[in-house]
Structure to design on (110 residues):
């Protein structure tokens, strides 16, 4: 039996905000849900999930829909996003490739 996954409140708030932004921008463009869904290559049901902030919608789909309606992701300026991504790749290259579980210190209290 599959258990329901619980999400942090911050996650749910961010998804709700993204969904609201998508919905607002779609309506500003006077696009129907069917029109945006067709542009994104998804079903109207999936689009509704994005707009409702459902956490089960794939991140790639949510980001694609947001991009199509002009919702900025992480930064408005594309060059700034690229710069930030390059910085994170550089930081990641300095960190260990694998993270091992920390070993407990021996108990020397005898």
């Amino acid at each position: 039996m599959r258990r329901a996954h619980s999400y942090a409140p911050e996650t749910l708030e961010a998804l709700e905000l993204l969904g609201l932004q998508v919905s607002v921008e779609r309506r500003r463009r006077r696009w129907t849900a069917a029109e945006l869904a067709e542009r994104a290559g998804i079903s109207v049901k999936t689009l509704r999930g994005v707009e409702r902030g459902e956490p089960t919608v794939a991140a790639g789909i949510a980001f694609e829909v947001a991009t199509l309606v002009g919702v900025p992701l992480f930064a408005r300026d594309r060059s700034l996003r690229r710069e930030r991504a390059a910085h994170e790749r550089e930081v990641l290259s300095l960190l260990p490739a694998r993270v091992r579980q920390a070993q407990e210190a021996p108990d020397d209290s005898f």
Summary: Residues 50 and 59 are 9 Å apart (CA to CA).
